[in-house]
Amino acid sequence: MYGFLLALLAAALFGAGAPASKALLAPLDPFQLAGLLYCGAALGMAPLVARERRAGPQLRLDRANGLRLAGAVLLGGIVGPVLLLFGLRLTLAGSVSLLLNLEAAATAVLGVLLFREHLGARGWLGVAGIVVASALVTWDGGSPGLAGGLLTAGACVCWAIDNHLTALIDGITPARSTFVKGAVAGLSNLLIGAATSAWVASGAEVAAALGLGALAYGASIALYIRAAHQLGATRAQAVFASAPFVGAGLSFAFLGESLASAHLLAALLLALSIAALLASQHAHAHVHESAEHTHEHRHDDAHHTHEHAGTARSLRHSHAHSHGRLAHAHPHWPDLHHRHTHSS
Fold first, then answer.
1. 173 neighbors 296 (Cβ within 8 angstroms)
2. Closest Cα to residue 302, out of 278, 323, 281?
3. CA-CA distance, 247 to 147, in Å (whole number)?
4. Distance between start and end Cα atoms, the chain
């Protein structure tokens, strides 16, 4: 129950990001607001990163992981948020919130196209349902809705690529990578915003944007990580998938946006589609070649067989470790240890 509540709180905080950002777009342009949101995320993650620094030695990224992190910062931290905020300027926050489900679909499709991952029949059905539901939402909004929907879809594609790049980073913890992304992307967008638009926001509005970033993009991520420790990644993601629906509900309840029948139909179709996408997994015999890397792990997952005296096998921790060659079969998703290709 504790892990479920953590995941639900993480989803609520993240879901609130779209409607709250809509309100802040009056005094701030998209570049300025995106910069403040991600600087706020860095501030929100700073205590967790400081605690990690005290707990153990610092890890270093090799060139490949450094490039992955740079790509995640560019697409997920700089381009994606700005596209989303320009989309929010044009259409309803409730519609944009529901459209954020496109990120899951784009992540799945790009995994198949770029990484030759497997996606079963239920997964493809889920992707198709998300696309159809998104089309319903954008069509109902007319021309502004279409433009806002396309910008939101572009943001979701950026975040989908970010998801794949981040999943391959094994040199630093999620908290540290989020801190770096927030600090670098936030400052970059702030500089662009300062150069392209006059600054008219008050101190209170700047503080509100920083606070929103700390909660919706900082604390939300930290809570999600803790929830995944308790529930496992799949169950935690299933709960976190409620975030777009939370955002839509807050938009209709507090921003005075009208709830159309297209929104209700799209929400139902999206819920069913996300469930199908999360249920998509497969099992087959596969081989793990010898490897040495650093990432967070536990010892009851059939992949991490090295021992620690006095450490519970279910305890998550991070350090450099080696894997010997291993061949086995079990149901799996394309996580860090299952990036093997599929011929079909």
1. yes
2. 323
3. 20
4. 39
Cβ–Cβ under 8 Å, residues 70 and 245: no
pLDDT tens digits, 107-159:
889 988 887 777 888 888 999 999 999 999 888 777 888 999 999 999 999 99
Question: Is pTM, for the whole model, over 0.85?
Answer: no
Got the DSSP string for 263-284?
HHHHHHHHHHHHHHHHT--EEE
Q: Output the 3-class SS for 99-110.
A: HCCHHHHHHHHH
Side chain identity, residue 166? T
In Å, what is the CA distance from 182 to each residue of 32, 279, 319, 337? 14, 31, 24, 27
Query: How far is residue 273 from each of residues 80, 123, 144, 277, measured CA to CA in Å?
Result: 23, 8, 26, 6
Burial of 2 (0-12, 13-18, 19+ CB in 10 A): exposed
